[in-house]
Write a structure and sequence with these properties.
Helix content is 75%, strand content 0%. The protein is mainly alpha-helical. Helix 6 packs across helix 13 (268-297) and helix 6 packs antiparallel against helix 14 (303-319).
């Protein structure tokens, strides 16, 4: 059976939409620490840290362009240890999908549909994303093509609308309390870069898999630009105190805007954009998890396990956090940072170490000949 293929352009769209939605939702450079008016400086550090994290993921995937992480981990480490290490990725996909959809569900229930059960919102989104995942990665790529222009248009509208209210004086003084608050504020958005683990599954499906590093680099760069603009606007419109004490600071800023007497509630476009991005992100995570698990179990097709995984995702998203405040606590450096370490640096470090050992062993054999 021929392998499904997507263009590197489509991977860029998927990665950009996936990362932009979560960083705009919580704006962690402002809410996860005490960066205050220096939140925009934290974005610059976030960009560097996220690019390094994504580089460790994508560069290794590019060295095995025809294999997923489930396959090349067994090639490098052996069947038992390889499955043990790659199982971390499978859990990561499920965990990140459940967290992302819970954040969106809380925003919808608290801001728009307070009488609607949270399980209905989460279940509906996961259902739609799972249908797309069942159709395959090519369909997810085409949906990213279809939704990207609308996503970007609504995002730009939400960034342009607050400009008349921007007060640059609220961005001063710069680095008045030193670098420590800024460094702490950059930890969570860098940790969110663990979303890039989906590259370890989708790289073999690319038209040009060896260019995955470049594609991922520009996706992170573009999403970091959006994060920078968002941080500047929120602090420049709401002020650092109000912004940092809001659960969803970007939506609070947008909701306060009235374009005219007849046009208000302009937060609707960004909610639609967030929904588009979340839909693509959940579909990608569900597909990646099901595809990886099928290879882990030695199954010929992933579709038989995709619906049970979707059901587990819904249950996890509802029962992992009692309320929005516990979810906000989780999105802080001690918790998200440690999870990102477990999801990315530990397995990637092991795989890179064995890959380097394999290269040394191969070069030694060649020298002996």
């Amino acid at each position: 059976m021929p392998i499904e293929k997507i263009a590197n352009r489509q991977l860029f769209f998927i990665h950009f939409m996936m990362r932009t939605t979560i960083v705009v939702a919580f704006l962690p450079v402002l809410t996860s620490a005490d960066a205050a008016q220096d939140a925009w400086v934290a974005v610059l550090i976030t960009f560097v840290g996220t690019e390094l994290l994504v580089l460790t993921i994508s560069a290794l995937a590019a060295r095995f362009p025809q294999q997923t992480a489930i396959q090349y981990s067994q090639k490098l480490l052996g069947p038992f240890l390889g499955k043990l290490v790659s199982s971390i990725y499978l859990w990561a996909f499920l965990h990140m999908a459940s967290c992302d959809v819970r954040i969106y569900g809380e925003a919808i229930v608290n801001g728009f549909l307070p009488e609607t059960p949270l399980a209905f919102i989460i279940g509906g989104m996961v259902l739609a994303a799972t249908v797309a995942a069942c159709a395959g990665v090519e369909v997810i790529g085409r949906l990213a093509d279809l939704l990207f222009l609308g996503f970007l248009s609504m995002l730009l509208f939400s960034l342009i609308t607050p400009l008349p209210l921007l007060n640059l004086a609220l961005l001063e003084p710069v680095l008045a309390r030193g670098l420590r608050p800024v460094l702490e504020a950059s930890l969570v958005p860098v940790a969110v870069g663990a979303q890039a683990l989906f590259l370890t599954i989708l790289t073999p499906h690319l038209d040009q898999p060896r260019l995955v590093v470049r594609t991922a680099f520009w996706a992170v760069a573009a999403s970091s630009l959006v994060l920078l603009l968002t941080a500047l606007l929120v602090v420049g419109v709401l002020g650092p105190d109000i912004g940092s004490h809001s659960i969803y600071p970007f939506f609070r800023m947008i909701r306060a805007i009235e374009v005219s007497v007849f046009l208000g509630r302009v937060e609707a476009p960004i909610m639609f954009a967030w929904g588009f991005g979340l839909f693509i992100g959940i579909a990608t995570f569900v597909y990646s998890g099901a595809k990886g698990l099928s290879q882990w179990l030695g199954l010929s097709d992933y579709r038989g396990i995709i619906w049970p995984m979707a059901a587990i995702c819904v249950v996890l998203s509802i029962h992992s956090f009692e309320d929005i405040f516990l979810l906000e606590t989780y999105m802080s450096p001690p918790y998200v940072g440690s999870h990102a370490l477990a999801f990315t640096l530990i397995p990637q470090g092991i795989l890179w170490a064995f890959y380097g050992f394999t290269l040394l062993k191969t070069s030694k054999k060649a020298a002996d000949k």
